[in-house]
Design a protein that fits this description.
Helices cover 18% and strands 29% of the residues. It is an alpha+beta fold. A hairpin with a 2-residue loop joins strand 10 and strand 11. Helix 1 packs antiparallel against helix 3. The longest helix is centred in the C-terminal third of the chain and has 34 residues. The radius of gyration is 24 Å and the shape is globular.
Protein backbone atom coordinates (compact mmCIF):
# COMPACT_ATOMS: atom_id res chain seq x y z
CA UNK A 1 0.00 0.00 0.00
CA UNK A 2 3.05 2.28 -0.05
CA UNK A 3 2.30 3.22 -3.65
CA UNK A 4 -1.17 4.37 -2.61
CA UNK A 5 0.31 6.61 0.13
CA UNK A 6 2.74 8.14 -2.35
CA UNK A 7 -0.09 8.71 -4.82
CA UNK A 8 -2.17 10.40 -2.10
CA UNK A 9 0.70 12.72 -1.15
CA UNK A 10 1.30 13.56 -4.81
CA UNK A 11 -2.40 14.20 -5.28
CA UNK A 12 -2.52 16.66 -2.37
CA UNK A 13 0.53 18.52 -3.61
CA UNK A 14 -0.77 18.78 -7.14
CA UNK A 15 -4.22 19.84 -5.96
CA UNK A 16 -2.67 22.66 -3.94
CA UNK A 17 -0.71 23.75 -7.00
CA UNK A 18 -3.79 23.55 -9.22
CA UNK A 19 -5.94 25.50 -6.77
CA UNK A 20 -3.30 28.23 -6.59
CA UNK A 21 -3.30 28.34 -10.37
CA UNK A 22 -7.08 28.68 -10.44
CA UNK A 23 -7.36 31.22 -7.65
CA UNK A 24 -4.26 33.20 -8.59
CA UNK A 25 -5.88 35.00 -11.52
CA UNK A 26 -6.39 38.22 -9.56
CA UNK A 27 -4.16 39.64 -6.85
CA UNK A 28 -5.54 40.31 -3.38
CA UNK A 29 -4.31 43.89 -3.62
CA UNK A 30 -1.16 43.75 -1.49
CA UNK A 31 -0.26 47.27 -0.42
CA UNK A 32 3.46 46.65 -0.94
CA UNK A 33 2.86 46.14 -4.66
CA UNK A 34 0.70 49.25 -5.08
CA UNK A 35 2.16 51.81 -7.49
CA UNK A 36 0.96 55.06 -5.96
CA UNK A 37 2.25 57.26 -8.78
CA UNK A 38 -0.08 55.39 -11.17
CA UNK A 39 -3.04 55.12 -8.77
CA UNK A 40 -6.04 57.38 -8.21
CA UNK A 41 -7.32 57.34 -4.62
CA UNK A 42 -9.15 59.48 -2.09
CA UNK A 43 -8.74 62.29 -1.20
CA UNK A 44 -7.38 62.86 -4.75
CA UNK A 45 -4.58 65.17 -3.67
CA UNK A 46 -2.53 64.47 -6.81
CA UNK A 47 -5.32 65.52 -9.18
CA UNK A 48 -5.16 68.88 -10.95
CA UNK A 49 -3.33 70.97 -13.49
CA UNK A 50 -0.28 71.87 -11.36
CA UNK A 51 3.22 70.77 -12.30
CA UNK A 52 3.31 68.28 -9.40
CA UNK A 53 -0.04 66.64 -10.14
CA UNK A 54 -0.09 63.01 -11.25
CA UNK A 55 -3.62 63.04 -12.69
CA UNK A 56 -5.16 65.58 -15.02
CA UNK A 57 -8.84 65.89 -15.96
CA UNK A 58 -10.83 67.57 -18.70
CA UNK A 59 -14.33 68.21 -19.98
CA UNK A 60 -17.23 67.81 -17.59
CA UNK A 61 -15.13 65.94 -14.97
CA UNK A 62 -15.82 67.02 -11.39
CA UNK A 63 -13.45 66.03 -8.57
CA UNK A 64 -15.00 65.78 -5.10
CA UNK A 65 -13.69 64.35 -1.83
CA UNK A 66 -15.60 61.08 -2.40
CA UNK A 67 -15.51 60.43 -6.14
CA UNK A 68 -14.42 61.67 -9.55
CA UNK A 69 -17.52 62.27 -11.66
CA UNK A 70 -16.66 62.01 -15.35
CA UNK A 71 -20.14 63.06 -16.44
CA UNK A 72 -23.22 64.21 -14.57
CA UNK A 73 -26.65 62.78 -15.38
CA UNK A 74 -27.11 65.33 -18.15
CA UNK A 75 -27.23 65.11 -21.93
CA UNK A 76 -24.24 65.68 -24.23
CA UNK A 77 -21.47 65.62 -21.63
CA UNK A 78 -17.90 64.34 -21.98
CA UNK A 79 -15.24 63.94 -19.32
CA UNK A 80 -11.94 62.17 -18.73
CA UNK A 81 -9.13 61.78 -16.23
CA UNK A 82 -5.59 60.70 -17.10
CA UNK A 83 -2.50 59.63 -15.23
CA UNK A 84 0.38 61.91 -16.22
CA UNK A 85 2.99 59.34 -15.15
CA UNK A 86 3.69 56.63 -17.75
CA UNK A 87 3.63 53.00 -16.60
CA UNK A 88 6.83 51.02 -17.15
CA UNK A 89 5.65 47.76 -15.57
CA UNK A 90 5.81 44.68 -17.77
CA UNK A 91 3.20 42.88 -15.68
CA UNK A 92 0.47 44.79 -13.92
CA UNK A 93 -3.06 44.74 -12.60
CA UNK A 94 -5.48 47.65 -12.36
CA UNK A 95 -8.39 47.59 -9.88
CA UNK A 96 -11.14 50.08 -10.68
CA UNK A 97 -13.85 51.02 -8.19
CA UNK A 98 -16.64 52.70 -10.15
CA UNK A 99 -20.33 53.58 -10.00
CA UNK A 100 -22.79 54.16 -12.84
CA UNK A 101 -26.16 55.49 -11.75
CA UNK A 102 -28.95 57.83 -12.77
CA UNK A 103 -32.68 58.45 -12.95
CA UNK A 104 -33.13 56.91 -16.39
CA UNK A 105 -35.19 53.74 -16.49
CA UNK A 106 -34.38 50.53 -18.38
CA UNK A 107 -32.75 51.20 -21.77
CA UNK A 108 -33.07 54.95 -21.27
CA UNK A 109 -29.56 55.72 -20.07
CA UNK A 110 -26.05 55.91 -21.49
CA UNK A 111 -23.43 55.75 -22.65
CA UNK A 112 -20.80 54.23 -20.33
CA UNK A 113 -17.18 54.32 -19.20
CA UNK A 114 -13.97 53.50 -21.07
CA UNK A 115 -10.75 52.50 -19.29
CA UNK A 116 -7.56 53.15 -21.23
CA UNK A 117 -3.91 52.12 -21.37
CA UNK A 118 -2.70 54.07 -24.38
CA UNK A 119 0.27 55.79 -25.97
CA UNK A 120 -1.30 59.25 -25.77
CA UNK A 121 -3.41 60.78 -23.04
CA UNK A 122 -6.21 63.32 -23.25
CA UNK A 123 -7.22 62.86 -26.87
CA UNK A 124 -10.91 63.79 -27.28
CA UNK A 125 -13.01 61.80 -29.72
CA UNK A 126 -16.29 59.96 -30.34
CA UNK A 127 -15.54 56.80 -28.31
CA UNK A 128 -16.76 57.49 -24.77
CA UNK A 129 -15.28 60.99 -25.25
CA UNK A 130 -12.01 59.60 -26.60
CA UNK A 131 -10.23 58.86 -29.89
CA UNK A 132 -11.43 55.94 -32.05
CA UNK A 133 -7.96 55.42 -33.57
CA UNK A 134 -5.86 54.82 -30.46
CA UNK A 135 -2.67 52.89 -29.71
CA UNK A 136 -2.98 50.48 -26.80
CA UNK A 137 -5.73 48.82 -24.76
CA UNK A 138 -9.30 49.90 -24.05
CA UNK A 139 -11.88 48.24 -21.81
CA UNK A 140 -15.41 49.48 -22.45
CA UNK A 141 -18.26 49.41 -19.92
CA UNK A 142 -21.08 50.04 -22.37
CA UNK A 143 -24.51 50.65 -20.85
CA UNK A 144 -26.54 51.36 -24.00
CA UNK A 145 -27.04 49.20 -27.10
CA UNK A 146 -26.68 51.11 -30.37
CA UNK A 147 -27.25 47.98 -32.46
CA UNK A 148 -30.91 46.94 -32.55
CA UNK A 149 -29.95 43.57 -34.03
CA UNK A 150 -27.64 42.69 -31.10
CA UNK A 151 -28.53 39.50 -29.25
CA UNK A 152 -26.65 40.44 -26.08
CA UNK A 153 -27.84 42.15 -22.94
CA UNK A 154 -26.49 45.47 -21.64
CA UNK A 155 -24.53 46.73 -19.75
CA UNK A 156 -21.81 44.94 -21.69
CA UNK A 157 -18.06 44.89 -20.97
CA UNK A 158 -15.61 44.38 -23.83
CA UNK A 159 -11.91 44.85 -24.59
CA UNK A 160 -10.02 46.06 -27.64
CA UNK A 161 -6.32 46.27 -28.55
CA UNK A 162 -5.39 48.73 -31.28
CA UNK A 163 -2.24 49.91 -33.05
CA UNK A 164 -3.98 52.88 -34.61
CA UNK A 165 -5.19 50.96 -37.65
CA UNK A 166 -8.61 49.97 -36.30
CA UNK A 167 -11.56 52.25 -35.67
CA UNK A 168 -14.01 51.54 -32.87
CA UNK A 169 -17.45 51.26 -34.49
CA UNK A 170 -19.83 52.94 -32.08
CA UNK A 171 -22.84 51.95 -34.17
CA UNK A 172 -22.18 48.25 -33.58
CA UNK A 173 -20.92 48.80 -30.01
CA UNK A 174 -17.42 47.79 -31.12
CA UNK A 175 -18.49 44.22 -31.88
CA UNK A 176 -16.27 43.85 -34.97
CA UNK A 177 -13.06 44.70 -33.10
CA UNK A 178 -13.61 43.34 -29.59
CA UNK A 179 -11.47 40.56 -28.14
CA UNK A 180 -14.23 39.21 -25.93
CA UNK A 181 -16.78 40.37 -23.45
CA UNK A 182 -19.59 39.67 -21.02
CA UNK A 183 -22.85 41.13 -19.79
CA UNK A 184 -22.92 42.51 -16.24
CA UNK A 185 -25.73 44.02 -14.21
CA UNK A 186 -23.75 46.92 -12.77
CA UNK A 187 -25.93 50.02 -13.05
CA UNK A 188 -27.82 51.59 -10.12
CA UNK A 189 -26.48 49.05 -7.62
CA UNK A 190 -26.70 50.02 -3.96
CA UNK A 191 -23.31 48.44 -3.22
CA UNK A 192 -19.75 48.85 -4.50
CA UNK A 193 -18.91 47.68 -8.04
CA UNK A 194 -15.40 46.80 -9.19
CA UNK A 195 -13.51 45.80 -12.32
CA UNK A 196 -9.97 44.38 -12.54
CA UNK A 197 -7.72 44.35 -15.60
CA UNK A 198 -4.63 42.15 -15.52
CA UNK A 199 -1.84 41.98 -18.10
CA UNK A 200 0.88 39.40 -17.52
CA UNK A 201 3.03 37.24 -19.79
CA UNK A 202 1.04 38.23 -22.85
CA UNK A 203 -2.31 37.38 -21.29
CA UNK A 204 -5.15 39.85 -20.76
CA UNK A 205 -7.73 39.06 -18.08
CA UNK A 206 -10.74 41.15 -17.10
CA UNK A 207 -12.71 40.31 -13.96
CA UNK A 208 -15.75 41.92 -12.33
CA UNK A 209 -17.16 42.08 -8.83
CA UNK A 210 -20.66 43.55 -9.24
CA UNK A 211 -22.83 41.14 -7.24
CA UNK A 212 -21.90 42.18 -3.68
CA UNK A 213 -20.26 38.79 -3.09
CA UNK A 214 -16.71 40.09 -2.59
CA UNK A 215 -15.40 37.72 -5.25
CA UNK A 216 -14.12 38.12 -8.78
CA UNK A 217 -15.99 36.71 -11.75
CA UNK A 218 -14.18 36.18 -15.04
CA UNK A 219 -15.34 38.26 -17.98
CA UNK A 220 -12.49 38.12 -20.52
CA UNK A 221 -9.40 35.92 -20.76
CA UNK A 222 -7.29 36.30 -23.92
CA UNK A 223 -3.76 35.10 -24.68
CA UNK A 224 -1.33 36.34 -27.32
CA UNK A 225 -1.67 40.00 -26.32
CA UNK A 226 1.34 42.30 -26.70
CA UNK A 227 1.36 45.65 -24.92
CA UNK A 228 4.33 47.99 -24.57
CA UNK A 229 5.50 49.84 -21.48
CA UNK A 230 5.52 53.61 -21.18
CA UNK A 231 1.80 54.08 -21.90
CA UNK A 232 -0.73 56.02 -19.81
CA UNK A 233 -3.77 54.92 -17.82
CA UNK A 234 -6.99 56.88 -18.00
CA UNK A 235 -10.77 56.78 -17.86
CA UNK A 236 -13.40 58.62 -19.85
CA UNK A 237 -17.17 58.74 -20.22
CA UNK A 238 -19.78 60.36 -22.39
CA UNK A 239 -23.51 60.97 -22.56
CA UNK A 240 -25.64 61.68 -25.63
CA UNK A 241 -29.38 62.00 -25.87
CA UNK A 242 -29.44 59.67 -22.85
CA UNK A 243 -27.36 60.16 -19.73
CA UNK A 244 -26.03 58.80 -16.43
CA UNK A 245 -23.67 59.73 -13.64
CA UNK A 246 -20.33 58.05 -14.38
CA UNK A 247 -18.16 58.00 -11.26
CA UNK A 248 -14.64 56.70 -10.61
CA UNK A 249 -13.97 56.14 -6.91
CA UNK A 250 -10.48 54.71 -7.32
CA UNK A 251 -8.02 53.25 -9.81
CA UNK A 252 -5.28 51.24 -8.10
CA UNK A 253 -2.36 49.82 -10.06
CA UNK A 254 -0.45 46.83 -8.68
CA UNK A 255 2.88 45.46 -9.84
CA UNK A 256 2.87 41.71 -10.51
CA UNK A 257 6.09 39.97 -9.49
CA UNK A 258 6.80 37.86 -12.56
CA UNK A 259 10.13 36.45 -13.73
CA UNK A 260 11.07 36.89 -17.38
CA UNK A 261 13.72 35.21 -19.50
CA UNK A 262 16.98 37.09 -20.19
CA UNK A 263 15.80 37.67 -23.75
CA UNK A 264 12.59 39.28 -22.53
CA UNK A 265 14.44 41.38 -19.96
CA UNK A 266 16.81 42.72 -22.62
CA UNK A 267 13.94 43.60 -24.96
CA UNK A 268 13.02 47.27 -25.31
CA UNK A 269 9.39 47.00 -24.21
CA UNK A 270 8.68 50.64 -25.11
CA UNK A 271 9.11 49.71 -28.80
CA UNK A 272 6.51 46.90 -28.79
CA UNK A 273 3.52 47.48 -31.04
CA UNK A 274 0.11 46.69 -29.50
CA UNK A 275 -1.17 43.52 -31.12
CA UNK A 276 -3.04 40.26 -30.60
CA UNK A 277 -2.20 36.86 -32.07
CA UNK A 278 -5.49 35.37 -33.22
CA UNK A 279 -6.27 31.91 -34.52
CA UNK A 280 -9.13 33.69 -36.24
CA UNK A 281 -10.41 37.23 -36.58
CA UNK A 282 -12.63 38.72 -33.88
CA UNK A 283 -15.21 39.23 -36.64
CA UNK A 284 -15.55 35.45 -36.93
CA UNK A 285 -16.62 35.07 -33.31
CA UNK A 286 -20.24 34.10 -32.81
CA UNK A 287 -21.98 35.14 -29.64
CA UNK A 288 -24.01 32.76 -27.53
CA UNK A 289 -27.34 33.95 -26.04
CA UNK A 290 -25.62 35.24 -22.89
CA UNK A 291 -23.36 37.56 -24.86
CA UNK A 292 -20.16 35.60 -24.19
CA UNK A 293 -17.81 34.24 -26.83
CA UNK A 294 -17.76 30.48 -27.27
CA UNK A 295 -14.18 30.46 -28.52
CA UNK A 296 -12.47 31.39 -25.27
CA UNK A 297 -9.20 29.82 -24.04
CA UNK A 298 -8.87 27.63 -20.99
CA UNK A 299 -9.22 29.58 -17.77
CA UNK A 300 -7.64 28.82 -14.41
CA UNK A 301 -10.70 26.97 -13.15
CA UNK A 302 -10.96 24.88 -16.32
CA UNK A 303 -7.31 23.90 -15.98
CA UNK A 304 -7.95 23.06 -12.33
CA UNK A 305 -10.89 20.78 -13.21
CA UNK A 306 -8.89 19.04 -15.95
CA UNK A 307 -6.01 18.45 -13.55
CA UNK A 308 -8.41 17.24 -10.88
CA UNK A 309 -9.99 14.69 -13.24
CA UNK A 310 -6.57 13.51 -14.40
CA UNK A 311 -5.27 13.17 -10.85
CA UNK A 312 -8.36 11.30 -9.69
CA UNK A 313 -7.85 8.91 -12.59
CA UNK A 314 -4.26 8.35 -11.51
CA UNK A 315 -5.32 7.68 -7.91
CA UNK A 316 -8.01 5.22 -9.01
CA UNK A 317 -5.47 3.35 -11.15
CA UNK A 318 -3.04 3.34 -8.22
CA UNK A 319 -5.64 1.92 -5.83
CA UNK A 320 -6.73 -0.74 -8.30
CA UNK A 321 -3.11 -1.66 -8.94
CA UNK A 322 -2.40 -1.91 -5.21
CA UNK A 323 -5.43 -4.16 -4.66
CA UNK A 324 -4.47 -6.42 -7.56
CA UNK A 325 -0.90 -6.62 -6.29
CA UNK A 326 -2.08 -7.53 -2.79
CA UNK A 327 -4.40 -10.23 -4.17
CA UNK A 328 -1.54 -11.77 -6.11
CA UNK A 329 0.67 -11.76 -3.03
CA UNK A 330 -2.01 -13.59 -1.07
CA UNK A 331 -2.50 -16.11 -3.88
CA UNK A 332 1.24 -16.78 -4.10
CA UNK A 333 1.41 -17.47 -0.35
CA UNK A 334 -1.07 -20.36 -0.77
CA UNK A 335 1.44 -22.34 -2.87
CA UNK A 336 4.12 -22.34 -0.14
Amino acid sequence: MESFKVSSISLCSLLVFASRLACGDITDGNAEHLKRENSLMKPYQGVGSSASSQWDFSGSTLVTSSYVRLTPDERSKQGSIWNTVPCYLKDWEMHVHFKIHGVGKKNLHGDGIALWYTKDKVHPGPVFSDNALFHGLAVFIDTYSNDDSADRSFPYISAMVNNGSLSYDHGSDGRTSELGGCSADLRNRNFDTYLAVRYSRGRLTVMVDVDDKNEWKECIDIGGVRLPTGYFFGASAATGDLSDNHDIISMKLYQLMVEHSPEEENLDWTKIQPSVSFLKSPKDNIDDPTGNFRSTPLTGWKVFLLLLCALLGIVVCGVVGAVVFQKRQERNKRFY
